[in-house]
C-alpha cells in the first residue's frame, strides 16, 4: 500500500566522507532508499553507525560527498542557503535528543519560533502554538522556561515546536535518548499520534530496538551501510499498540517481531532494574 | 522574519545581558559626548568670532597707523613706537598694489563736545571717506539715520558718547546721559597745542545720527565720525581762528593722515597685501592677522577634543564588536537551532546588526542628552577656562558669550553617526554568526 503512495524522500547513492587529519572516514557508504508519504521510518543502528549523519544529510544540515537526496521532488543539496531555509520552514520539522530549546524563551515562545521565521502574524501564531502545546499536554506550562521543566516536558515542547507549522516531514534524532522508559513511551505515542492525524512522514534515528516497534519501516544501518530494510505491516502494529496500551500502560516490552522480541525484553528488564536501583 | 519580530527579539537579547549592554552603551555615550561637545565648542567659537568681527569691522580691511607699536620677531610688542609718514604719495602707491579695492585715508583729532545744558565731553573725531562707511562695520543707528554716500556733511556719533558727558563744575565727573533729541550739541577741536587769544567758535551739530553702543567696546563707541571732505572744511574753518603761526602748523596736519585703511578685494588676499605693504616699509595691521593666533588656538582645542572623540568612538566601536562576538559565542547553539528551524541567514545577520546598531543608537541618544547638559554648564561656568586658553584676547569675554552651541542638526547627526558606528562594528560579528555551521552549533553547549 505504501509502495504505491507518493515518494517523499529519495536517497540515492549517498556517500559522506569525513576527514580526520589524514584519515578519511566513510560515515555513510553508498546508501539508497525511499520513504513514502505518511510513513514512520526508523533508522536503527549502534552509535557510530552513521545513522545520525544520514539524518543530518537528509535534513540538509550537513553537506553530501556524493549522491543525491530528493525531498518533495527537489534536490535539497542543490538549493541555495536561503532556499533551503525556506524549504525547511515549509516542509520540515525537527525533534532533537537534547531538545535544543532556547532557554531564554518560554515554552510558548519556543513553539512559536518556526512560525516567527515563517512570518506568521503574531495573533494567529500564538493561537497555533497554544493549540499545539495543549495537544501535547502542556496547556498549563506555556509560560514556563525550559529550565523550569522536566526532560519529558521539554521534549514535548520540542515536539510541539516541530509540528506546529504542520510540516510534511519531521526528523527526529534520538528523541527519547535522554528520557526514561516511561516518558519515552509517552513521547513516542505523542509523535505517532500527531503524525498519524495529519498524515505526516516521520524519520527517526535511534539505537533503541524497542522503539522500532513504532515504525512502519525499519532501516538497519551498520558501518554506514544498509544492512536490512524491514517493512512492517502497519495495521498489525497499531493493533498491538492499542492492545498493549489498554492492558498495561506501564513499562513492558511489546513484541512486534519474534526475532527481536526476546532481545527487547531483556533490554527493558535491565533498564527497569537500573531504574529501581 | 517580520521586522517587528526582529526588533522584539533583538531588544530582548540586549536586555538579557543588561550589565554588558550597559557597559558597551557607556562607551558609546562617552564617544558621542566628546564628539558633540567638540563640534558644539567649535561652532560656539566660530559664532563668537563672527560676532566679534562684525562689531570690529571688516575682515578685508588692512589698517596702517601713523603711530605704530614696534613688534619683535615673536610678534611681542616691545613698547617702542614708530611714527610713519602717511601722506597722499603713500595713498597713491597703495592704490597700485594688487588686490587692493580701495584706499581710505583717515584723520583723527581730539574734539570737544558741549551741550546747551553746559555738559561737556572729550571725544575722538575720526574722518573717513563715507564711500567706504560700510567697511567700518559700524553698529546700527539708535537715533537718526545712517548717512548715505551723498550726505557728506552728516556726523555720526558713537554709541557711548552720549552717556559719558559730565559737568566741568562737578569734581566727581559723574556721567550724564544726554538726550540727542532734547539738547543742542556743539563741537570744537581741542586746541591745547596752540595758544589762542580769542574764544574759539563752536560748531552746532545739526545733521547727525547716534549709533547703538556695542558690547565689545570698539574704538568707535567713544568717537564721532565725519566725512573726509567735511573734516577738511571744519578744520580749515577752525584753524582760521588760530594765531597766524599756529595756523600754518595746524594746516600742515592736513597733509598727513593719522591712519590709512586699505580694503582688499578678498579675505584670502589680505596676507599678500600686508606683505606688499611691509615691503614698502610700512607697518600695517589687520583683523585677520590679529584673529589668526586666536583661530589657531581654537582649532587646536577642537583638534584635541576631536582626537579624544575619535579615540573614544574607536574604542567604543571595538567594544561593540567585542560584545557582539561574545554574544555570538554564547548564542552559538541558539543560532544553530534558529538555522535548522528555517531562519533565513539574512535574518540572523539583520538580528545581530540590529542589536549592534541599537547599542550605538541608545548610546548616541543618551550621549546627546548629556551633551546638552554639558553644553549648558560650559556656557554657564566655562568662561574663565576659555579666557585662559584664549590668552591675549579679551574679546571672548562678556557675560553672554557662547562657548558651546548645539544646533538642531547636531543631535540628529550624532545619533545617526553612533548608530552607524554600531552597525559598522557589528558587521563582522554578524557575518561570523551567519557562517556558523548549524551542526557544530547545535553540538555546542549553551
From TrEMBL, chain A:
Highest taxon, organism lineage: Bacteria
Protein name in the entry: Putative ABC transport system ATP-binding protein
Similarity field: Belongs to the ABC transporter superfamily.
PANTHER family in UniProt: CELL DIVISION ATP-BINDING PROTEIN FTSE, LIPOPROTEIN-RELEASING SYSTEM ATP-BINDING PROTEIN LOLD
Keywords associated with the record: ATP-binding, Nucleotide-binding, Transport
SMART domains: AAA (SM00382)
The species this protein was found in: Anaeromicropila populeti
MF annotations from Gene Ontology: ATP binding; ATP hydrolysis activity; transmembrane transporter activity
Keyword Transit peptide among record annotations: no
Pfam family for this entry, one: ABC_tran
Cellular component terms (Gene Ontology): membrane protein complex
Residue ranges occupied by any ABC transporter domain in the UniProt entry: 9-248
From TrEMBL, chain B:
Membrane topology term: Multi-pass membrane protein
Principal location: membrane
Domain spans labelled ABC3 transporter permease C-terminal: 308-437
A GO CC term assigned to this protein in UniProt: plasma membrane
Pfam families: FtsX, MacB_PCD
Membrane-spanning ranges: 21-45, 303-330, 351-374, 408-428
InterPro entries with a match to the protein in the record: ABC3_permease_C, MacB_PCD, Macrolide_Exporter_MacB
GO MF terms held by the record: transmembrane transporter activity
Cell compartments where the protein resides: Cell membrane
Entry keyword set: Cell membrane, Lipoprotein, Membrane, Transmembrane, Transmembrane helix
Residue intervals of the MacB-like periplasmic core domain: 21-166
Family: Belongs to the ABC-4 integral membrane protein family.
Record-given protein name: ABC-type transport system, involved in lipoprotein release, permease component
Native species: Anaeromicropila populeti
Amino acid at each position: 500500500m505504501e509502495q504505491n503512495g507518493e515518494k517523499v524522500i529519495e536517497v540515492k547513492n549517498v556517500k559522506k566522507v569525513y576527514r580526520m587529519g589524514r584519515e578519511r572516514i566513510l560515515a555513510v557508504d553508498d546508501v539508497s532508499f525511499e520513504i513514502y508519504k505518511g510513513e514512520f521510518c526508523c533508522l536503527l543502528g549502534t552509535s557510530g553507525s552513521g545513522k545520525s549523519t544520514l539524518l543530518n544529510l537528509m535534513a540538509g544540515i550537513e553537506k553530501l560527498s556524493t549522491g543525491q537526496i530528493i525531498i518533495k521532488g527537489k534536490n535539497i543539496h542543490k538549493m541555495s542557503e536561503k532556499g533551503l531555509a525556506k524549504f525547511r520552514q515549509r516542509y520540515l520539522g525537527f525533534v532533537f535528543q537534547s531538545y535544543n530549546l532556547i532557554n531564554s524563551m518560554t515554552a510558548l515562545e519556543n513553539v512559536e519560533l518556526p512560525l516567527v521565521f515563517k512570518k506568521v502574524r503574531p495573533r494567529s501564531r500564538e493561537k497555533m502554538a497554544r493549540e499545539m502545546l495543549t495537544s501535547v499536554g502542556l496547556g498549563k506550562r506555556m509560560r514556563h522556561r525550559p529550565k523550569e521543566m522536566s526532560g519529558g516536558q521539554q521534549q514535548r515542547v520540542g515536539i510541539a515546536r516541530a509540528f506546529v507549522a504542520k510540516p510534511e516531514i519531521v526528523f527526529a534524532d534520538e528523541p527519547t535518548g535522554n528520557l526514561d522508559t516511561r516518558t519515552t513511551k509517552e513521547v513516542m505515542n505523542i509523535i505517532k499520534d500527531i503524525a498519524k492525524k495529519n498524515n505526516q512522514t516521520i524519520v527517526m534515528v535511534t539505537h533503541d530496538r524497542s522503539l522500532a516497534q513504532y515504525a512502519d519501516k525499519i532501516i538497519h544501518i551498520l558501518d554506514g551501510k544498509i544492512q536490512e530494510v524491514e517493512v512492517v505491516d502497519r495495521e498489525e502494529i497499531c493493533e498491538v499498540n492499542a492492545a498493549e496500551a489498554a492492558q498495561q500502560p506501564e513499562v513492558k516490552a511489546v513484541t512486534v517481531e519474534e526475532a527481536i522480541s526476546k532481545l527487547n525484553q531483556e533490554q527493558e528488564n535491565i533498564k527497569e532494574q537500573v531504574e529501581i536501583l | 522574519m517580520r521586522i517587528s519580530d526582529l526588533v522584539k527579539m533583538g531588544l530582548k537579547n540586549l536586555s538579557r545581558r543588561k550589565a554588558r549592554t550597559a557597559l558597551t552603551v557607556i562607551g558609546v555615550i562617552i564617544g558621542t559626548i566628546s564628539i558633540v561637545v567638540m563640534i558644539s565648542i567649535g561652532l560656539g567659537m566660530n559664532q563668537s568670532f563672527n560676532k566679534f568681527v562684525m562689531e570690529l569691522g571688516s575682515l578685508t580691511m588692512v589698517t596702517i597707523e601713523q603711530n605704530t607699536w614696534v613688534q619683535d620677531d615673536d610678534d611681542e610688542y616691545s613698547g617702542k613706537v614708530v611714527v610713519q609718514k602717511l601722506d597722499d604719495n603713500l595713498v597713491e602707491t597703495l592704490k597700485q598694489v594688487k588686490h587692493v579695492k580701495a584706499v581710505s585715508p583717515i584723520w583723527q583729532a581730539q574734539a570737544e563736545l558741549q551741550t546747551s545744558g553746559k555738559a561737556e565731553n572729550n571725544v575722538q573725531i575720526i574722518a573717513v571717506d563715507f564711500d567706504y562707511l560700510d567697511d567700518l562695520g559700524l553698529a546700527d543707528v539708535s537715533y537718526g539715520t545712517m548717512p548715505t554716500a551723498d550726505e557728506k556733511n552728516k556726523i555720526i556719533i558713537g554709541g557711548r558718547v552720549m552717556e559719558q558727558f559730565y559737568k566741568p563744575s562737578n569734581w566727581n565727573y559723574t556721567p550724564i546721559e544726554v538726550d540727542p533729541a532734547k539738547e543742542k550739541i556743539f563741537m570744537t577741536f581741542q586746541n591745547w597745542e596752540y595758544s589762542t587769544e580769542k574764544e574759539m567758535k563752536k560748531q552746532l551739530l545739526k545733521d547727525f545720527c547716534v549709533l547703538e553702543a556695542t558690547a565689545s567696546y570698539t574704538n568707535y563707541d567713544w568717537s564721532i565720525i565725519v566725512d573726509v571732505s567735511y573734516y577738511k572744511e571744519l578744520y580749515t574753518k577752525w584753524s582760521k581762528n588760530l594765531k597766524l603761526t599756529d595756523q600754518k602748523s595746524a594746516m600742515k596736519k592736513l597733509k598727513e593722515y593719522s591712519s590709512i585703511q586699505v580694503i582688499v578685494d578678498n579675505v584670502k588676499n589680505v596676507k599678500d597685501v600686508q606683505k606688499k605693504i611691509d615691503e614698502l616699509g610700512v607697518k600695517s595691521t589687520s583683523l585677520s592677522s590679529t584673529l589668526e593666533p586666536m583661530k589657531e588656538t581654537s582649532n587646536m582645542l577642537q583638534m584635541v577634543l576631536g582626537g579624544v572623540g575619535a579615540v573614544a568612538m574607536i574604542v567604543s566601536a571595538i567594544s561593540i564588536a567585542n560584545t557582539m562576538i561574545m554574544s555570538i559565542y554564547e548564542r552559538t547553539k541558539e543560532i544553530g537551532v534558529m538555522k535548522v528551524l528555517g531562519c533565513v541567514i539574512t535574518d540572523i545577520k539583520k538580528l545581530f546588526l540590529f542589536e549592534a546598531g541599537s547599542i550605538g543608537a541608545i548610546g548616541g541618544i543618551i550621549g546627546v542628552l548629556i551633551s546638552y547638559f554639558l553644553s549648558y554648564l560650559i556656557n554657564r561656568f566655562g568662561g574663565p577656562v576659555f579666557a585662559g586658553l584664549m590668552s591675549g584676547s579679551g574679546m571672548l569675554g562678556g557675560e553672554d558669550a557662547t562657548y558651546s552651541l548645539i544646533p538642531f542638526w547636531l543631535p540628529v547627526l550624532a545619533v545617526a553617526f553612533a548608530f552607524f558606528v554600531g552597525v559598522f562594528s557589528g558587521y563582522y560579528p554578524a557575518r561570523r554568526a551567519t557562517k556558523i555551521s548549524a551542526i557544530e552549533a547545535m553540538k555546542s553547549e549553551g
